[in-house]
Design a protein that fits this description.
This protein is of the alpha+beta class. Helices cover 47% and strands 9% of the residues. The structure holds zinc ion (ZN).
């Protein structure tokens, strides 16, 4: 009888199979672990990036909201006004303060000078009859309103370059001495006329022309009462001579826009006196990143 030899699996082969199986299984497990781990890292990285982007956006949004935040100015006795977003220390600013202690560069020339469509002294040069383009419309509106009320106004002098201002000052100083001239004329760089925002207004008849008595004329009174409604402020009022540094000039008006001109009119302050309020607003605008 033939005995069938059973096929025996050698222990060595078994061990090899087991080891190989373990190697394959552990490799697979490691692969799965690595995959999951990488997935988790990627998810966490994405979450971190999303959080960073969200934080950055929130910061940018907060900055933008702050930048757009309105800044207000309240002059004593006047209604609150909104500060214009501008650097008031710049000679082109509508609110720039130009006086004996706040000079502008003598090289400054307004970028847009035009001849306004109003009555002017024909014997003055076209340069001196010019104003900054952005005030020609309010100037025309004021003259038209004055005319409707029976006041024929005329501009005696508007823009003056630093060179022309020097000519004027030097001739006044030669005639009456530098100290006296300094009371009614300005050194180059210290005149509002150089901004193109100031006008000396008279009556067409030249009654009380550049004279204090202009304040008593119907034309002078109309201006004192209505100029602020068109954005103009009486720059050198009576009783404020030590503050403005100039004699009373009922003919010299400066454009600052309706809001500030009205607030100045209501408070009775000059631009010099309002300057600290404007500066505070400027600081806030700078801190807000608005300018
Ligand atoms: Zn003037």
């Amino acid at each position: 009888m033939k005995i069938r030899k059973s096929r025996r699996i050698s222990p060595l082969r078994t061990v090899i199979v087991i080891i190989l199986s373990l190697v394959i299984m552990s490799g697979a497990a490691f692969g799965v672990y690595t995959y999951l781990h990488n997935q988790q890292i990627a998810t966490e990285a994405k979450q971190a990036e999303d959080a960073r982007i969200a934080a950055e956006k929130a910061l940018a949004d907060a900055k933008e909201a702050k930048r757009k935040e309105p800044v207000y100015i309240t002059l004593p006795g006047a209604k609150q006004i909104r500060a214009t977003v501008d650097d008031y220390t710049h000679p082109a600013s509508m609110w720039v303060l130009v006086n004996k202690t706040h000079a502008i560069p003598t090289t400054y020339v307004p970028s847009s000078l035009v001849l306004p469509d109003v009555e002017e002294r024909a014997d003055k040069s076209s340069e001196e009859r010019s104003v900054r383009a952005d005030i020609s419309v309010p100037l025309k509106s004021m003259f038209t309103a004055a005319s409707a009320d029976g006041h024929a106004l005329m501009i005696g002098s508007a823009y003056r370059s630093a060179a022309l201002q020097k000519t004027y000052f030097d001739s006044y100083a030669a005639a009456s001495g530098a100290e006296a001239a300094n009371q009614y004329s300005a050194h180059p760089g210290e005149s509002e006329h150089q901004t193109g925002l100031a006008v000396d207004i008279s009556t067409v008849s030249r009654n009380c022309y550049l004279n204090e008595c202009f304040t008593s004329t119907p034309d002078g009174q109309w201006l004192a009462e209505h100029a602020h409604s068109y954005g103009f402020t009486l720059r050198y009022p009576k009783g404020k001579e030590t503050i403005t540094g100039y004699q009373f000039e009922p003919w010299h008006y400066r454009y600052v826009g309706v809001d500030l001109a009205t607030a100045l009119h209501e408070s009775g302050l000059t631009l010099d006196e309002a300057w600290s309020y404007l500066q505070a607003a400027l600081t806030t605008l700078q801190q807000n990143g608005a300018i």
